[in-house]
Structure formats: C-alpha cells, structure tokens
Design a protein that fits this description.
By secondary structure, the protein is α/β, with parallel strands linked by helices. The chain has a domain of about 120 residues: Rossmann fold, CATH 3.40.50.1010. It contains 12 helices and 8 strands. The strands form 2 sheets. It has a 5-stranded parallel beta sheet with strand order 3-2-1-6-8. Strands 5-4-7 form a 3-stranded antiparallel beta sheet. The longest helix is centred in the C-terminal third of the chain and has 14 residues. The protein starts with a strand and ends with a helix.
C-alpha cells in the first residue's frame, strides 16, 4: 500500500481554498491512502469544532474522513522526535520551539510506515528537514538575534529523517491539474496559464509556503 501523510497545514490550505473535494479524485488517481495521525485530526477537527471561525472547515474535513478519503492512523510512533527537533536552535542560550506535536507526529508516522511523501505547507518544518541552515537564517532575520545550532542534535535529527520526501499542497494541485481532476471546476474560456497562476496564488495566500519565483516558473512551463 502506498501512503501520503498529511500535516495540519496542508489540509487547512486545501480547506481554505474549497479544494477538499479534490481529495476523493486524488486518492483514486494515486491508488493509495491519504492519512493523518490523531494529533493532526485534533488540530483540524476536534478543536476547531468548538470555534465559530473554523467550525465549517472542520465539518467539511470530517466528512472526508467519514467517506474514507482521509484516514486517521493511530499506530504507535516514536515520541522523541518533537523533543529532539526543539533542541536544535538556540537563542540567548535557550532552545527554541520550532515545531509542534502535530507536525512531528505526522513526520514520525511518515517515517514509520515508509510513506512516499510527507505533505506539509508550513515552511519551518520543511526547512528543518531539507535546509536547516536556511531555517537558521530565517529565524535570525525574524528575531533580529543570533541563532546557534546544536550540531549533535541536528545530526541525530537528520539521521532520523533521512530519505523522507516532502511535498506541498501546490505539488498535489499541480498533479490534479495535469490529470484533469480540476477541469469540472474551471471554465474553458479562462486560459490554462491564468488558471494555474490563480490557483497557486490562492494556495500561497492561504498557507502554502510557495515562492513567487516558483509560481512564475510553473506558469511559464504551461503549454
């Protein structure tokens, strides 16, 4: 069985852009399962259901789970990843919390089941795995402070996450476009390049860490 493991951020991006219905056609085209750990379900549904602002998105997401297009996987995962991830960057001799439990639980689940990819839109988590030096620069610019890295803890973390592939909701939607899964939602009178540009900017403005240059390159390559 093939798996994609989702973090909270990627599902929220889809929900905020009314794209959750595409999960059904995407899972069918993928031929595998889209899964989340219980902690992500808690952030997506259990907590928002009690708020007025995000209750509707939570209800719609719950429907995807009820229909089986998004599955909650409760198998036991390693619980040391969160502590290790938050023992890498230091500011003024104090370790910084850079990731939260739901993000680490999703990452740990992806590692445990050897998922084909970990789907996360949040930039910090992605940089921690793919480019920790760039994350250091980002934190320094944000905090206007010198950040140091515990190299031993970083090496331990990198050894644990080595080989994990990270994708974003933008990559998923690019596949959906390529396979024609969004055609029924898009008017033919609007040029494809304009459709792609509108979609990618909507994803970026609602949570997907997507650079302007990435959008321009993607649009440029559309025939």
């Amino acid at each position: 069985m093939k798996y994609l493991v989702f973090d909270t951020s990627s599902i929220i991006t889809l929900a905020m852009n009314s794209l959750l219905p595409t999960i059904k056609s995407l899972t069918e085209a993928y031929g595998g399962q889209f899964i989340i750990p219980p902690e992500v379900k808690k952030e997506l549904i259990d907590n928002p259901l009690h708020s007025k602002k995000y209750a509707l998105e939570a209800i719609i997401t719950l429907k995807s789970i009820e229909l089986g297009y998004l599955k909650v996987d409760s198998r036991t995962i390693r619980d040391d990843l969160l502590k290790l991830a938050n023992s890498i960057y230091q500011s003024k001799s104090k370790y910084m919390t850079v990731v939260h439990k739901a993000e680490c639980d999703a990452l740990a689940l992806a590692l445990k089941i050897d998922a084909e990819a970990y789907v996360v839109d949040e930039r910090t988590t992605r940089l921690l795995v793919e480019n920790p030096k760039q994350l250091k620069k980002l934190l320094e610019n944000k905090l206007h402070s010198t950040i140091t890295i515990n190299q031993d803890n970083l090496k331990k973390f990198q050894n644990l996450v080595r080989g994990i592939k990270i994708i974003r909701s933008s990559e998923l939607m690019a596949v959906a476009l390529e396979k024609g899964l969004l055609d029924k939602y898009l008017p033919t009178e609007i040029p494809r390049k304009q459709q792609v540009e509108a979609l990618m900017w909507a994803l970026r403005l609602n949570g997907c860490a997507l650079a302007t240059e990435e959008i321009k390159e993607l649009v440029k390559n559309i025939k």
